[in-house]
């Protein structure tokens, strides 16, 4: 089976960085061009959307206001159709390339983690819970995939929509443009506060989810032992306890989300209402034309609501940053040096094995935590 994704032959350790955003950028290695083209397509799509509203203003003021002819109406209709095709086509291109990038990186991460975890030392697996490894190799990889497919593209789309539409409104009336962004700093500030809160709570929720997965995995694996020692009630109580903790953390996480959306909606709605009123007064006083006001109504939406949407993107980006950090802790672990031996026999191997005074201990997290399991063992195998 062939793949359309580029095959990158390098160690993912090379992409790790202390700054998580830098690490996510370096993880794009091999997909930089696709990601950049996708963002360029987003820019063209955003420009086409704003041009549609500018065309509406032109149509009202210059075509309808001066007596429309069939030829002028046809030209305007063709212009609307052309802008719609450009917007739809470049939106498809950006989505297609973003999906290719996200799926390719997710596939690379899954394959790397699958191979890397199998090559880690026994001492690492001894001190790491299986459920935690499963959590990081599944839901954390999915969170990172979602970041590349949605959040990374949404940040560029939001900034472009804001800049292009703000510039277009400034061209109509600079005072109206300034009034239209009064609430934007407050929206960004609220998003930042909730970003910090939700990121911390999401990290705790993910850790508790790993504990629940570990408890479930251990019970399913050792169900015969549990039944043999009649420990069903004890294990059920333990599972209920960790599940209840996960429920409480999830409820708190949802509470922060439920507080963020109404507060951002109030700010965004108030800003839009203010813009509509001020723009209407300017149109009645002759400061702007009717066509300019109609164009302004459409462009104002794509200034305020993308910035409100930025809050959601920031909150969801925080989950991707947490997931990246959790995966990075696994990737940073050194593989077991199974091929590090440098002894070469002098002659042909005879097939006999001799152990002389062999000692062995598992390496603990600290030097004084080594657990010796063999000491001064000698035997001979023919």
Features:
ABC transporter transmembrane region fold, 2 strands, mainly alpha, 382 residues
List the strand order in the largest sheet.
Answer: 1-2
Task: Give the N-to-C terminal Cα separation.
Answer: 45 Å
The first-level CATH class name: Mainly Alpha
Number of domains: 1
The CATH architecture? Up-down Bundle
- Please, what is the average pLDDT? 83
**Poorly predicted runs of 5 or more residues:** none
Report the structural category.
mainly alpha
- The fourth-level CATH homologous superfamily is ABC transporter type 1, transmembrane domain
What percent of residues are in strands? 5-15%
DSSP strand count: 2
Order of helices and strands: HHHHHHHHHHEE
Number of discrete helical segments: 10
**What is the 3D shape?**
elongated
Alpha carbon gyration radius = 30 Å
CATH topology: ABC transporter transmembrane region fold
Written account of the structure:
The protein has helices at residues 20-26, 32-63, 70-118, 122-127, 130-172, 174-179, 184-221, 223-228, 232-284, 290-331; strands spanning 353-362, 371-381. The protein has 382 residues and is mostly helical. It has one domain (12-331): ABC transporter type 1, transmembrane domain (ABC transporter transmembrane region fold, Up-down Bundle). It has a two-stranded antiparallel ribbon. A hairpin with an 8-residue loop joins β1 and β2. α2 runs antiparallel to α10 (290-331) and α5 runs antiparallel to α7 (184-221). The longest helix has 53 residues, at 232-284. The chain is elongated and about 105 Å long. The mean pLDDT is 83.
């Amino acid at each position: 089976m062939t793949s359309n994704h580029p095959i990158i032959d390098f160690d993912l350790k090379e992409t790790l960085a202390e700054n998580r955003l830098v690490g996510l950028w370096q993880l794009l290695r091999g997909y930089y061009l696709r990601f950049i083209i996708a963002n360029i397509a987003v820019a063209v799509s955003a420009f086409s959307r704003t041009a549609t509203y500018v065309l509406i203003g032109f149509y009202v003021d210059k075509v309808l206001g001066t007596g429309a002819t069939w030829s002028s109406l046809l030209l305007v209709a063709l212009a609307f159709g052309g802008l719609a095709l450009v917007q739809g086509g470049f939106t498809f291109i950006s989505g297609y390339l973003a999906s290719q990038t996200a799926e390719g990186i997710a596939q690379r991460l899954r394959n790397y983690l699958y191979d890397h975890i199998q090559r880690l030392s026994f001492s690492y697996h001894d001190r790491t819970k299986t459920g935690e490894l499963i959590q990081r190799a599944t839901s954390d990889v999915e969170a990172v995939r979602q970041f590349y497919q949605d959040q990374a593209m949404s940040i560029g789309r939001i900034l472009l929509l804001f800049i292009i539409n703000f510039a277009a409104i400034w061209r109509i009336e600079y005072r109206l443009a300034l009034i239209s962004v009064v609430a934007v700093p407050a929206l960004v500030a609220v998003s930042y506060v909730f970003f910090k809160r939700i990121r911390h709570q999401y990290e705790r929720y993910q850790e508790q989810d790993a504990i629940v997965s570990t408890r479930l995995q251990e019970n399913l694996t050792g169900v015969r032992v549990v039944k043999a020692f009649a420990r069903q009630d004890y294990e059920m109580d333990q599972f209920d306890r960790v599940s209840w903790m996960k429920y409480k953390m999830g409820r708190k996480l949802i509470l922060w989300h439920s507080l963020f959306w109404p507060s951002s909606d109030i700010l965004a709605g108030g800003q839009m209402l203010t813009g509509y009123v001020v723009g209407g007064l300017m149109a009645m006083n002759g400061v702007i034309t009717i066509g300019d006001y109609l164009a302004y109504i459409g462009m104002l939406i794509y200034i305020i609501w993308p910035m409100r949407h930025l809050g959601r993107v920031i909150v969801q980006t925080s989950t991707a940053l947490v997931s990246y950090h959790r995966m990075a802790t696994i990737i940073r672990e050194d593989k077991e040096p199974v091929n590090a031996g440098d002894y070469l026999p002098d002659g042909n191997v005879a097939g006999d094995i001799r152990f002389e005074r062999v000692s062995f201990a598992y390496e603990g997290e600290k030097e004084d935590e080594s657990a010796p399991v063999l000491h001064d063992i000698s035997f001979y195998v023919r």
